[in-house]
Write a structure and sequence with these properties.
alpha/beta; globular; 6 strands; Rossmann fold; 255 residues
C-alpha cells in the first residue's frame, strides 16, 4: 500500500487517538453512535475532492501518515467513523488542492478521481471561481463553470456506474478576504450554489448545504470564529462541516 495514495482507517484511529472508550453497554459514543450512513458499507473507498478547504494542508509527500487527510472536515469524518467502526475497514482519500477552481478539477480528474475508483466521492469546489475572478475584476463565466462541472459528473457516473457522489455547495461569510467586495462575492457565490443545486437535481445527487449551517452559526458566535477570513474554516467551522456532511448523507438518497 502506498501511503501517499491512501490512508486506511487503522492509521487514522491511531494517529488521532480518538477511539472512544464506549459506554458501559459497549456501544460507541459520540457522533457516530447514531449509526453509519448506508454508503459506508464494509471496504468502501471514500474520496474527498476539492480546493484548499478540503485540502486542509494535507501532507502530499506522504511523510507523515497522520496528515494525509489534512486537518479539516475529511479528517474529522474519517476519524469519527474509522474510530467507532474499525470493522468496516474503510479507505479514505483526500485529493483536494489549494487554489483549485472547477476548471482545475477537470484538468486532473482522470488521474485524481476516476483512476482511484472511489465508491463514494465528495466534491466541494467553486469558491475560487468567485475569489480569483472577483479579485481580478473579471467577469465570471457561470455557464462555462456549470458545463464543465456537469461533464465531470456525467463522465464519472459513466466510468463508475455504482459510485455515490455527494455535492457540497461553496459558502462564505463576511471576512477579511471578501469584505471590501462583499456584494460581488455574495452574488457570485449564490450563483455557484444554484449551479450545484441544479446539478444535484439533474444527476439525482445529494447536496450538502453548508451556507445555511454557517448562516445559523453566526447567531451563536462571530463569523471569524467559524471562517477565520470569511472563506476558510477554523477548527470549529470544520466540525460544523463534518456534522452537516454526515447528516446529509444519512438522508434518503435522491431518486
Amino acid at each position: 500500500m502506498n501511503l501517499t495514495k491512501t490512508l486506511k482507517c487503522l492509521t487514522i484511529g491511531v494517529a488521532l487517538g480518538m477511539m472512544s472508550p464506549g459506554s458501559a453497554s459497549g456501544a460507541p459514543e459520540g457522533q457516530a453512535a447514531e449509526g453509519v450512513p448506508e454508503i459506508f458499507h464494509k471496504g468502501v473507498r471514500v474520496l474527498f475532492q476539492g480546493d484548499s478547504i478540503t485540502d486542509g494542508q494535507r501532507d502530499k509527500r506522504g511523510t507523515y501518515p497522520g496528515l494525509l487527510l489534512g486537518q479539516g472536515y475529511p479528517y474529522i469524518i474519517a476519524a469519527n467513523f474509522c474510530g467507532h467502526f474499525p470493522e468496516l475497514n474503510l479507505t479514505v482519500l483526500n485529493r483536494g488542492i489549494s487554489g483549485n477552481k472547477v476548471s482545475d478539477l477537470a484538468g486532473r480528474w482522470q488521474n485524481d478521481t476516476i483512476a482511484l475508483k472511489p465508491d463514494v466521492l465528495s466534491i466541494l469546489i467553486g469558491v475560487n471561481d468567485v475569489w480569483h475572478n472577483v479579485a481580478a475584476g473579471k467577469e465570471i463565466n457561470f455557464a462555462g463553470i456549470e458545463a464543465t462541472y456537469d461533464k465531470l459528473l456525467a463522465d464519472t457516473l459513466a466510468a463508475l456506474p455504482t459510485i455515490k457522489i455527494v455535492l457540497c455547495e461553496p459558502f462564505i461569510l463576511p471576512g477579511s478576504a471578501n469584505i471590501k467586495q462583499w456584494e460581488e462575492w455574495d452574488a457570485a457565490t449564490k450563483k455557484i450554489q444554484q449551479i450545484v443545486a441544479r446539478l444535484g437535481e439533474k444527476h439525482r445527487l445529494p447536496v450538502v448545504h453548508f451556507q445555511r449551517v454557517f448562516d445559523e452559526a453566526v447567531k451563536r458566535a462571530p463569523a471569524e470564529y467559524w471562517l477565520f477570513d470569511g472563506v476558510h474554516p477554523a477548527w470549529a467551522g470544520h466540525q460544523l462541516m463534518a456534522d452537516e456532511w454526515v447528516r446529509a448523507v444519512k438522508e434518503p438518497w435522491p431518486r
